[in-house]
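Quick one: Membrane protein from Achromobacter spanius, structure tokens please.
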Amino acid sequence: MNLLPTNWGDVPLASMSLLGPLALFALVSSITPGPNNVMLASSGLNFGFRRSMPHLLGVNLGFTLMIFLVGIGLGSAFQRVPELYTVLKYSGAVYLLYLAWKIANAGDMEDGEARGKPFTFLQAAAFQWVNPKAWVMAVGVVATYTPQNGFFANLVIATVVCGVVNLPSIGVWVTFGTALRRVLHRPWAIRAFNVGMALLLVASLYPVALDLLR
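--- reply ---
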């Protein structure tokens, strides 16, 4: 079966009418606090904007690819074997707790050894698959903003829109963290910021905690 449309003009007008709402969804979802943005802000503070660029691009391209792969059928694997999603969800939660601990114990800006290294491009891209918020966003894009009529073309459009909107949105957080380097010079202030970011990261796991309490 050929998923590609014979004419991109055949893409339903209904899908084009969803571009505005889709862009708004992508903006709100991308710019609001979540594991990626908390970690990017912390990276901006501890390593600066330039050294955080691989992390930033890894988040953007990794999440964009995730939307596309979920759309073309990866999500159906979790429908057939829901236990896989459960394992992924709780493994991701444990990994996020580990990252929160690492952020909370980061050294000051002069202590390069204690601070460790920023995320690489591949680490940031791979992280999307254990990020609960990324899963919610990806499934939401495919289920809500990708009409079934002309699905493949609509999926490509939705993926591109989300990728374009996501990049500057998460870039705001790296910029925010980098700007704080000029303000937070004292070790206690940097430590307080890192601890605050770590607590936000833990707080982002509340949906997983609610599942455990049910």
